[in-house]
């Protein structure tokens, strides 16, 4: 059996323990000492907000009953009564992979301006979290004061101007004990989850956006502790959420589901993909598509990287990873699929080690055999992105842009007083700009304090 360190079971247990400590602000003496900022964690891109003892991510208070009665399964990666399918798994020899630190040349700080320009520099409230998959807007989860309700609010950051109007001041279920838990946005709409941790209930809402104005919220799904709180994505006119049975829960044997509703169409959701067993990664949004990782319909455990068209939900590209290899993140960019491992395997050739992988060249759909590959051999803490031909990845502290063709890279400068994680990458997909953010709590020698979330928008020089 392959050796995996650390295990997903340990991470799930850690999340459950944090959930039990949540909502202790009514008894501050019993609350554990917490850092002063929201720190993005390495667990599937979800975020642990220890400052308020509130867990954002896969809490295990998850999903059960779809409100829509007319959903249908458009695709099924594995159904119990289906005949087992034949699969061909990805094979990458060790000599087909180049890696950061062995073959690459760093671009010096004095030359950085020749490769990437800072086109936006904005200050948001300390503790803000951001997500974007386009060049126009980012969804923001804003903190409130330590003792206030609601815990969080939703804003839209306009990447051109830096304005960030609040579009959702509190959870729809605020009076019932719900708080806003996660949010994503496209230019056409907003999807968010709300959670009542004490009762173990979550809800999914969507609303359309019209010139920045939020339409009427629609409740599209609701569930309890038998299912994990869904991970979400917004692509164009489509809101997606992924429903997984909770580890060790009463629904462990149930299918995982990918659901969708179109913004402004009300609450009638449809199931567009199902998978026997838990999907491996959260949905990864692009400008016009979505990446998911269902299991194949085989006796062995294999995960299939799958690119769906956001509008038709047809499969546009796919590739199957070797048996029992479980990616932490999966995405898509200029050279096809990207994926990352937070564990080390004792098999698998050139893709057996910890890091983030992508083909080093363009190729045809479902044609991944015999390619050269690139590996960013750092512990993955964020899904990667592509911008003007550059492969954008999160390192331990810096965000880096990599020119795979010339094997050169740049590392963005880190701000003084930033949190331990440094800059965090907010962008997914392939865009012409990309967004980073960091939370800063810094006291100067003269006693002045800087406490804010610094958001920066970068435009790399297009690679030919």
Automatic annotation (TrEMBL):
Keywords: Membrane, Transmembrane, Transmembrane helix. The keyword Transport does not apply. The chain crosses the membrane at residues 54-75. PROSITE patterns: TAT. It comes from the Bacteria. Residues 1-45 are annotated as: Disordered. InterPro entries: TAT_signal (IPR006311), TAT_signal_bac_arc (IPR019546). NCBIfam families: TAT_signal_seq. This is Secreted protein. It comes from Raoultibacter timonensis. The lineage of its organism: Bacteria, Bacillati, Actinomycetota, Coriobacteriia, Eggerthellales.
């Amino acid at each position: 059996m392959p050796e995996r360190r650390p295990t997903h079971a340990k991470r799930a247990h850690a999340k459950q323990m944090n959930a039990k400590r949540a909502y202790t602000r009514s008894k501050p003496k019993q609350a554990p000492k917490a850092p002063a900022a929201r720190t993005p964690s390495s667990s599937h891109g979800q975020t642990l907000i220890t400052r308020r003892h509130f867990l954002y991510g896969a809490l295990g208070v998850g999903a059960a009953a779809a409100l829509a009665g007319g959903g249908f399964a458009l695709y099924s990666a594995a159904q119990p009564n289906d005949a087992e399918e034949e699969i061909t798994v990805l094979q990458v020899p060790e000599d087909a992979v180049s890696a950061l630190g062995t073959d690459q040349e760093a671009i010096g700080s004095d030359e950085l301006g020749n490769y990437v320009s800072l086109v936006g520099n904005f200050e948001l409230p300390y503790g803000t979290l951001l997500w974007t998959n386009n060049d126009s807007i980012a969804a923001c989860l804003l903190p409130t004061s330590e003792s206030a309700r609601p815990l969080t609010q939703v804003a839209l950051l306009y990447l051109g101007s830096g304005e960030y109007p609040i579009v959702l001041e509190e959870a729809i279920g605020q009076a019932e004990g719900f708080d806003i838990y996660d949010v994503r946005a496209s230019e056409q709409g907003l999807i968010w989850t709300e959670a009542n941790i004490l009762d173990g209930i979550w809800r999914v809402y969507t609303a359309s956006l019209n010139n920045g104005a939020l339409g009427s919220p629609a409740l599209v799904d609701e569930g309890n502790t038998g299912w994990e709180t869904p991970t979400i994505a917004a692509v164009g006119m489509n809101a997606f959420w992924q429903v997984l049975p909770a580890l060790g829960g009463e629904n462990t044997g149930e299918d995982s589901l990918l659901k969708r509703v179109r913004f402004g169409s009300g609450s009638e959701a449809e199931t567009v993909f199902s998978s026997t067993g838990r999907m491996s990664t959260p949905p990864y949004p692009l400008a016009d598509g979505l990446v998911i990782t269902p299991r194949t319909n085989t006796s062995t455990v294999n995960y299939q990287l799958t690119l769906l068209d956001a509008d038709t939900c047809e499969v546009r590209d796919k590739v199957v990873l070797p048996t029992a290899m479980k990616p932490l993140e999966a995405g898509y960019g200029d050279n096809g699929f990207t994926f990352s491992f937070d564990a080390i395997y004792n098999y698998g050739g050139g893709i057996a080690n910890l890091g983030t992988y992508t083909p080093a060249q363009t190729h045809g759909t479902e044609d991944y055999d015999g390619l050269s590959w690139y590996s960013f051999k750092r512990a993955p803490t964020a899904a990667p992105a592509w911008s003007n031909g550059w492969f954008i990845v999160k390192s331990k502290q810096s965000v880096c842009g990599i020119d795979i063709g010339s094997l050169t890279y740049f590392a963005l400068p880190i701000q003084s007083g930033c949190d331990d994680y440094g800059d965090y990458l907010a962008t997914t997909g392939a865009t012409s700009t990309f967004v980073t953010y960091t939370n800063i709590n810094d006291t100067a020698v003269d006693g002045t304090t800087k406490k804010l979330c610094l958001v920066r928008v970068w435009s790399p020089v297009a690679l030919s």
